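Q: I have two molecules that I believe assemble together. Could you output structure tokens for the complex as a whole instead of separate predictions?
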Amino acid sequence: MSIDSEILTAMRRAGDAGTSGAELAQKLGVTRAAVWARIEELRALGYEIEASPLHGYRLRNTPDVLHADDLLSRLWRTTKVIGRDIRVFQETTSTNDVAEKLARDDVKEGVVVFAEAQTKGRGRLGRAWLSLQGKGLWFSVLLRPALRPQAATQLTVAAAAAVCRAICSQTGLTASVKWPNDILLGGKKVAGILTELSAELDHIKYVILGIGVNVNLTLTDFPVELRRIGTSIQMEQGRSANRAELAVALIRELDADYARVCDGRFTAVADEWEQCCATLGKSVHVLIGRRTIDGRAESLDEDGALLVRTQHGRLERITGGDVTLAK
Amino acid sequence: MSIDSEILTAMRRAGDAGTSGAELAQKLGVTRAAVWARIEELRALGYEIEASPLHGYRLRNTPDVLHADDLLSRLWRTTKVIGRDIRVFQETTSTNDVAEKLARDDVKEGVVVFAEAQTKGRGRLGRAWLSLQGKGLWFSVLLRPALRPQAATQLTVAAAAAVCRAICSQTGLTASVKWPNDILLGGKKVAGILTELSAELDHIKYVILGIGVNVNLTLTDFPVELRRIGTSIQMEQGRSANRAELAVALIRELDADYARVCDGRFTAVADEWEQCCATLGKSVHVLIGRRTIDGRAESLDEDGALLVRTQHGRLERITGGDVTLAK
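A: Yes, here they are, computed for all two components at once.
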């Protein structure tokens, strides 16, 4: 935990009572001058920190930026695996690329990589993902679960449920999931999950969960062709959302669901997922390469695959492809 | 195709009749002096090239080294995908690492990476693979098949069958396969296959097939603890084998089987595989993590998974783990 994290944590805990430079200096084992220098740095980043002889330092407002030390401070070791290590980039090609590099460098699982902007954000099957500067949460989580490759869908399902819960807890909006990886608000896509894995035949080496959430985009931020199908939290609730708070909620929910998957309690995750699923019970049209399957989405199997009952009564196990609700 | 490849190909085609410097120069569009310089380079590598006024150049003997231009010359565009691009390293950590780097750099599928020695050769589940300088074929093939991740076992099965056929055609020895990835001679391991993949949930991005063949190792090359379970072609046939010829046979067989997998003719591959399988029809003991399954190995399913009938009559689908023949 860095000094910035400690200072932010102490100020948040103190609230209106404030905390003095002397207290901070003693707690952190540094000089008051060093505390002062860090406070000035935080102010330069946009943190509004009030200083008074009576109350000491009080945190009045935080800027809408992603700051690793601040995110760590807000999480304050409340998660088990995910978010104990956080890295924020101003701009990168794709946070999945960065996380993959960390994976190859044997970085521990749970590291979260954010970027304020992605120049080559991607969705499934190499499709582009719009990742405008400061308008959303574009991030990746490195995981090393002891799962077979076919069970990786469990992680996508878990992440989708976690994203829905985090959006709901932060905004009150009810998000739903379109299997396997789209999160919808009002029937339009507000977030997506890209699951990439490196594996041997029977053994996952690592998984990168890439998550993109459209937080504060406005209609005109979307290219014309996406306006009919894309949305953002700001567009749905009529006002902007605090990205750092949402990021922290997302990390907490992801961490909780990851623990459940690793403990073999995927059915509990799947049950919750079914509550927010826009696909189950519906007539669906599935496109896999050039093959199409029409039927009714019945349930998830133990690996997270979608079971679709065709018109001929056959149960098809869908592990990918494009699923659309039939008209 | 490089000039060295062209010169070696022309000399091989001419055989005892030989080919003159003038003919070579014209064919390659270079000067006779340039041809002479390349011949000298080949000689420096250990190629015995006879030069006479009557016959021109005649290739008399080739050294036991792996030389990319020579391998390309021997293959002479007879394969469709695998081995159109060959790279040879004197030493590397693991050829799978090199192939993975090429994959990320968007190199075309089919590239084959050989190393004379690997300092960190690996087998399944991170186990070490002995890769002594010049004693074997340690190589990796980059593939980009349009398969689902769970179908990657098809490639391991295809590669195992291809390795058996190549060993048989080059040595007359009958190799057998222990599912999924071990090749045996006389019941001992002579070769192994490590399949590593990078994927999205429903879509393989690339597969690296790592193949190690113990060609000219002697008993004392093996650490004591491996002497009971490992062997080499030289040990089994009582004399050394030409690695370049075996490499070419391997690449041809791999290319043929890869074409069959890509064309959806995996059943034909599986049928051949069953001919050389040491596992099917046998009582087996399977260890998957901490779980064990005992039963009779019945067949392969369409994805290449092993179907084992337990004592209780249940059919278990095995996609990994350690399979040993029951005593």
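A: One point stands out. DSSP finds nine helices and 14 strands in chain A.
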